[in-house]
Amino acid sequence: MDNNTTQLIAEKKASGLAQISKIGLLCAAIALVPACTKTLKPEVHKPTKLTQLSQSITVVEPVFQTSINNRSKLADVNRFEVGFDGQQLVVAGSSGKVESYNISGQNLWSVDLKEDIVGGVAFDGASQTAIVTTKSARVIAFDSVSGNIRWQTKIDGTVLAPALIHNNRVILSGNDGIMYGLSLQTGATIWQFATQSPSISVRGTAKPTLLDNQTVLLATADGRLHGVDIESGIPQWNRRVGIPTGASEIQRMTDIDGTPTVDQGQLFAVSYSGQLLAADLATGQVSFLQEAASRNRVAVTNDTVIVTTLDGTVKAFSRQSGEMLWENKDLAYRKLSNPERVGNYIAVGDLDGVVHFLSPQDGQIVSRSQSKGAINKLTFSKGYLLTQTQTGQVTVWRQVR
Fold first, then answer.
1. What order of strands is seen across the sheet that includes strand 266-270?
2. Which residue stretches of 269-339 are H helix?
3. Helix, strand or coil for residue 231?
4. 46-399: what CATH class?
5. Which residues contact 171 (CB under 8 A, 6 or more apart)?
6. Across 34-154, where does the E strand assignment appear?
7. pLDDT average, residue stretch 58-69
8. pLDDT computed for residue 157 by the predictor
9. Could you tell me the pLDDT band of residue 38, with boundaries at 50, 70 and 90?
10. How far apart are the C-alpha atoms of 21 and 26, rounded to whole Å?
11. If exposure means fewest CB atoms within 10 Å of the residue's CB, which of 130, 202, 255, 257 is most exposed?
């Protein structure tokens, strides 16, 4: 699903537009060919113009920038992110290039697969393994030191999110609802786990994430979270987060596209249909359920849970009670990335390549940094903030405060 489609659906949810014909919505949602031509034009919200900051502090400083060839539509859908272990970066472009750099920006190796990459990069420094997935459903593992291909295997469905590499498993979430556990050594399929796949969903999937050392957390298009044993693929439990609302299939989409967050014994997840869930992992009880619709993972501090919504609002909730503490609408309709905690601040990227830094206390914007192209995903790791924009520019900043 492209940017315009996601915007159309988000605006319909946010502003309560008059009912649009079902056939017209389906044409927009799944980009059917010219057969569907008569649709009503929804109201288009212009991105809010940025105002100059009265005072600005320096939160990060640039380290280096590079560029990798992207085909913009694929890059937008798949929200490519940079693989990073603190010293080495591995990046992939949707056009087929995979490249590695050290933290100073020196190119270490480059490989051209000559095929569209759709799954972004998973990079595990401990096993020196980087993994990407392609349009033809190939899973390819690289030696991250040399750039040589260790193995490649074919699976049944396309994978649009980076894999999870843990111990001796590579975990993949297929866009068709099938999850895979592969051998890290050989790429052989050890297990498969099938989930229910709705007839219509947002194109994209959440990255698998660790719940604990034995359990992988999988978020699916039917609005559920599944806890699955990493070694065997045996399901342990599941919980619904996204709750269908509205009359049409489009309105009732419940995807969880933002990777769930596990922090200090709590689980946080947000759905496309508008539910923010917090759960206590020790008891399995829901701590709170609040209204927030997003495709992005949340950011968590000691006191707050931060969400960037479909309409570009940044919201902060108490992580204890779920009470909304503040919201910032200064970036409305700027197609915000996930929020990311950077030191004492919250960073969000936008459609113009601007990274905004907000105070977690009141949500005020205190600083900005510039990249080039729409920012779909921010990653903060080992004191560095990294992003890969829709145009393929990779930028690395170092935290200074």
1. 261-263, 266-270, 275-280, 286-291
2. none
3. coil
4. mainly beta
5. 163, 164, 165, 179, 180, 181, 182, 208, 216, 218, 230
6. 60-67, 83-84, 88-92, 97-102, 107-112, 122-124, 129-133, 138-143, 149-154
7. 94
8. 85
9. very low
10. 9
11. 202
